User: Fold these one by one.
Assistant:
Number 1:
Amino acid sequence: MRLRDFCRKVFFVVLVMVFLIGVTSCSSERSTNQAVKTSPGHAVDQETVTRNVYENELARTPPMGWNSWNCFHKDINEVQIKQIADAMVDSGMRDAGYEYLVLDDAWMAPERDSNGCLVGDPKRFPSGMKALGDYIHSKGLKFGIYEDRGHSTCQQLPGSFEHEQVDMSTFAAWGVDYIKLDSCFAENNGRLTTEDYTIYKNCIIKAGRPIVLSISDFGNGGWAWDGKDMAHLWRTSGDIGADIRSVYNCAETSAGDRHIHSAFNGLWQFAGPGHWNDPDMLQVGNLPNPVEDRTHFSLWCILAAPLMAGNDLRSMSDTVRDILTAPEVIAVNQDPRGIQGYKIHDGGDIEIYNKPLHDGTTAVLLLNKGSENADITVTWDKIMLSGKQKVRDLWAREDLGDYKDSYTAENVLQHGHQLIRVGSIGAPLPTPEPVPVDKYTVNNSGITYLSDLYYVWKNNNGPNSDKNGNGNQITINGVTYDKGLGCRGTTKVMYKLNNATLFSAVIGLDDSYSGDRTGRFRVFNEDLFGNRVLFDSGRMSKDSPAKSIDLDVKGVKCLLLVFEGRNVLGNLADARVISTEPDTEACE
Ligand code: GAL
């Protein structure tokens, strides 16, 4: 090879390398994929190390930190964020366990730079995000940042859609440890939610820095479509507000049947070390009084929810600081066994929750959501104990004595509660049996009627099984059906299909519906963000003939059925899936 050709080749290779560096990260301080030595003689590549850490070591207990959104919304800047970092240390929050300082929406400039890279807003973050991350790290804290998987964030700033790798590599180069990944505009992506979050997971792993990934999707069913395979936590709710009713509503998305079949008793069985239900960030310090602040905090602790403080730490009162740093209450949240607490009593205004801990004791929350003071009694049989048991008040940090068979919290204030620990150190107490997988997943070959399965996600109403929306026999155009799903008003439900091949049903309004409104049936692959419509009936009235639908659902993991029509009775009669065994005799 002539020297000139050789030089040309070298020049070309260097050019390509420079280009690749430019597109995979936007910072000179990139993380690289160099080989990492784990033990003498064994070289493991950085991606494998990161994958292992990402999947097995992060968020073993619910993440704790602070996030800018609940108190500052869009109004954030580097001076104030540094003050927050200082306050996290000075207030004792860091030492109490709060480690992630997360910048929510609106940290970025309205446009990417000329290389297509995200940059901090030049007026509000003039020193740049790497410098801010360095400051946060210098305080012994971890750096968290917000992005959106759509083309824009919720505040109309640049989103990560089609910039996934470059953005994740940029974050890694800035030293980011936690990403809250939102979902505004994601319905335009043309991808399923699971496809989206899998892309981000793989980009993070490729970027070579272990980063906690928090799914923010307003409660779109992360537990249902195995969000745990992609991320470490997922939202179960819409946005939390600074009032106790909103706090209760968000808690219900995780503890109640707002978004799942009531047979599950909330989402507790879907949480555990490395994967958590997230009913949204804390409003402690933003609520009108300490009684409500404490109730909110205890609820989040018993639900093993991520503890992301959302108040202005620079000006919080000593009372609020003491609430956020209460050691024995936080210990319930951070218990290494990682069981999410579940309701053992729901009497409307009075609720009792139980969270068995790793050391043989159990935490019990006695909650008064009502407007009158109340006495609340927990009996030991409900928490797998009997006889005489020790009781400790976790807010007062004092032993209350031994109680036989039960304990009564007296005169609990409205929106107040008592949080106690019951029992003695020993073998861990059992939890209730989780709902078995085959009760909510199509596992058998042949026909499975969806009315024989529990749905794993719902919004609005859930359907009736084998009855119309009024609880009577399903009837369409004079034909009666013994099986099927009956909806009353707008109904959205997701079923886990696994490996089914065909979905079929006969759809139409119930003969008993006499109104003039119309109803519309749609079937989606997975969730609404995915926007993969498999079937759309258009508007059907009571006079429309029934429609038979047969849909190919090969590869569809979760099927979403949507019926829309205010107070209309709509049926998916005989709704069923057929699974065929894979043809093992097939030729190669
Ligand atoms: C919402 C999200 C909030 C906050 C906000 C920022 O979608 O639920 O927690 O991040 O976007 O615009």
Number 2:
Amino acid sequence: MIQKQTISPSRGVKGDMTVPGDKSISHRSIMLGSLAEGVTEVHGFLHGEDNHATLGAFRAMGVLVDELPGGVLRIHGRGLHGLAEPGDVLDCGNSGTTIRLMTGLLSGQNFFSVLTGDRYLRKRPMKRVVGPLAAMGARIWGRGGGDLAPLAIQGGGLAPADYDSPIASAQVKSALLLAGLYAEGVTTVREPHLSRDHSERMLGYFGADVRPFPGGVSLVGHPRLTGREVHVPGDISSAAFFMVAALITPGSELLIRNVGVNPTRSGIIDILQEMGGSLQLLNERELSGEPVADILVKSSDLKGIEIGGSVVPRAIDEFPVVSVAAAFAEGTTIISDARELRVKETDRIAAMTSALGGLGARVEARDDGMVIHGGQALSGGTVSSRGDHRIAMSMAVAALRATGSVTIEDTGCTATSFPDFWELIERVGA
Ligand code: S3P
């Protein structure tokens, strides 16, 4: 599924839209719904390939999930100890969240399982979860000395973790919390900066005893989880493409409704506002324990800024599109403390430096970030997504303000997180 898309310069991004459900929250709703007792109904679930990989894994472990009209999922929970040993390898596709969170959860099961993924996922580091899970007592094998999938897991017999993570990673934190469900006593994870806290919130929402504290979170093992109704907000990481599209395209005004604005995810709003972007949060409310708002965006003259520190994990998936905003801003933008971008779906520092550079932007890659000298006109041309959904969508946004048409190669990957991206961007003005 390679495909390509050609985008021409836009005369304005306008309208009133919603984006599909949050990918992180959708993954967690299947996991906790399956481990809960009783029925969980998930409204606004993201029907993308990544979340379907998680869904397939739980079905393979005996969980019954009905698909109701409107894309609603009804999960018949099997309780903390109700999963069955899968009869085959579990394929996580392109999804880092699936493989890392499942490695934690499967470490708690008294059975054998094997996790694998596509050629991109099989290159991504797993030691970050395998190491601390092994310290809890899990037996995990993988290529590269346990760092690379396929991973084979013999779970059971876990002791609680008390772990100081060297990186701010919600996938590491969540893997340990999910394993901690199966350990007697209190599991504690500390991190250098707060990463997204959807796991903590949803575990609490389902009835677990979760105690966030400055610098970390603790969880009491062996809780009783109860099925709940979950309303998944729109994914701020998907909305981000449209925010930047409206900001950089003159004559734009766009209302994006029902977007999750959890403070551990809303770094993109802070970054774009600091760059001078007009973004207004309206109708702020709460949905299933998660903050939500409508976001009104108007075209703005952006300026370069310095980005680093605690905002980085709060915007970790948005740096490809931040680099697009920076290319159209006046002055220089410096992104640092973002070395994690090197090990995402692809090396996003290398991918964006080459894609934006290929259209004439002045961009330098740094070990832990990028320097973008804005204000240079971008030409038309052909660029590659390198199989990474967020690179493909970011370059579609850049194309709206280029001086000629841009062809993006290898765009099938957008189905992982945003299957109807191309229709939506066309509808609002591409
Ligand atoms: C995610 C955590 C982040 C993020 C990813 C989704 C999650 O990864 O980049 O897209 O759902 O927990 P890291 O934990 O590696 O930072």
Number 3:
Amino acid sequence: MKSISTPERITVVGAGLMGQGITQIFASQGHAVCLTDSNQDALGSAKDRVRTNLTRMARGGIDLGADIEEILARISTTPDLATACKACDFVFEAVYEDLELKQRIFSDLDRMCPPTTILCSNTSAISITQIAQQSKNRERIVGTHFWNPPYLIPLVEVIRAEETADWCTHSAYSLLARVGKHPVHVHKDVPGFVGNRLQHALWREAFAIIDEGICDPATVDEVIRNGFGLRLPILGPVENADMVGLDLTLAIHNYILKFINADPTPSTTLQARVETGQLGFKSGQGFLEWAESDMAESRERLANYLINVFAERQRQSKGEAK
Ligand code: NAD
């Protein structure tokens, strides 16, 4: 029998961008993690990528809590799904965003894992209820939507599907809180959950503004980065509306909502650019033009910003704990 204080054994399915990051989170917090992937190359390079991330975080002033090699030693890998899930308390699935693949994996996990194992999907948008459809024990299947990079962005949306049991969502929430994530409960299994609905409502309006020629693409980002975007990390729309007054918010909405985009189809500019091969960083041209050095600078700026925010939050929580 496993003692209560033993860290939960974690299995991660899919060693791509998100799977590696999720593995890193649990290994950093003292959990034994078994990582599996059907692609040997992805599996073979996963630990090196985790090492690179951890080295960068340490350089940026983040306290990792253990030596990098000690963290890496907690990670084992196998290409065999059955071996990976023979003895585990939680499985985090992070394979391609493909409904049939995820349904198959969950049906396999449900057959192969011990009956008490909780099965979590990191899908960005697919209904958890649909993912669970081919599985027998659907009460133990739950959505846990991490954000990229998962080891730096605290939020994880914990999504209850139609048949998920409360004990399952609560166990996933509690584990995520214990490893330093910021879980939130999402009570309805709707496309986009909460975060992606909010994010893509903003993106739809951003692209509609470009379609209508109200300002150029670079100006859209300037308006956000130098305007209300500065408030967003500490003030969401709910608190902000209360702060300015719900009467004022209602008056603004009564006037403005009819002018804001509500199209169910994507922006015409977005569609036209994709049709002509203008894919952004992938092709060097998207809404904006991208030289190699600009892309490197943009990625670096984001990584440094997120590491600084993480380090600052860690310092604050250590100060509060004293
Ligand atoms: P990825 O392409 O980087 O990695 C997917 C991995 O799954 C690959 O290594 C692949 O070999 C593996 N895989 C495929 N079939 C498999 C199988 N049958 N068994 C084992 N492994 C298999 O993808 P990603 O970006 O890490 O995304 C993974 C999931 O996380 C997707 O559902 C995605 O929507 C979601 N997600 C992605 C992001 C993001 O920003 N990339 C953010 C949040 C959620």
Number 4:
Amino acid sequence: MLVLGVDTSCDETSAAVLSDGRTILSSIVASQAIHAQFGGVVPEYASRAHMQLIVPVVRQALEAAGVEYGQIDAIAVTNRPGLVGCLLVGVSFAKALAYSLDVAIVGVDHIEGHVFAARLAEPDIRLPAVCLIASGGHTELIRVDAWGEYEALGRTRDDAAGEAFDKVGKMLGMTYPAGPEIERKARGGDPTAFAFPRAMMRRGNPDFSFSGLKTAVRYKLDDMGALPEGDELRDFLASFQAAVVDALVIKTMWAVEDSGVPTVTLGGGVAANAALRERLVEDAARLGVSVVIPPRELCTDNGAIIAAVGDALLARGQRDGLALGVSASR
Ligand code: KG4
Ligand code: ZN
């Protein structure tokens, strides 16, 4: 069973070929450089870039997998949540290709895709699990009882964790997306040098909030007058990163303890962050639960996680017709 997975929900045009729901034959991700100068994704530019990239990216994914169009059994495409104009490019492309190849098409929830990174990384992962999804648009705690059976435990009340990285990076003159650059420049810094707030840290409240942290960073920068540089910048970024990681991991581990699940996992672009990954491993060990940390390339947006969800949906008999729509929300 060969599934082509396509994702155009935000600013990455991605396609992958997945065999039998497990083996990634290829995964191509084209990041759109156009947004760097704007400090965030400009939806109209993103849609136009998807239009230019979708055909070559899919062609490259097939070539890298050594697969002909005619060998594809089904197409899985992200149809929610995301930027509507962007989703429309992927979904319209997938519909046309599915029609011409006469194969099934299934619409996939992008967030469920991030959850499936854990299954691709560790097919025998022990469920139920608590899964932390931290991306540029979403920050959620999800209980995974079975593949396709989820319970929402908590979510951000305002900014997503990745958005906090991107906005703080913008204040410091970094280009979008700032997460990887902040991680790099924070390396070796003192995470206790600056006292940044961890919001809503009350047990029993599984929601997150990052807008206060963003404001605290803004005020601190105003106080400092000039932008920090050198060691001071390193400490500043390490302290900011620690505030995000603390909030994410402490709340995740509370959810793990309170629900008594044997496994914790994570996904979404921020899950590529080494400080977050290491801290989750440490805290899971302390609690004696097993932890699944998907490889970085499965955490950030990619077509393979979408194909994996599609494969599971198809196995359950799900099919979407050419009337498949898109939605900005879930
Ligand atoms: O999941 P993703 O690729 O796209 C969305 O669905 O949003 O996540 C992108 C987000 C961006 O905010 C980016 O800054 C953040 O993930 N990110 C990181 C790292 N790599 C990507 N944040 C912190 N550390 C990283 N290494
Ligand atoms: Zn994502």
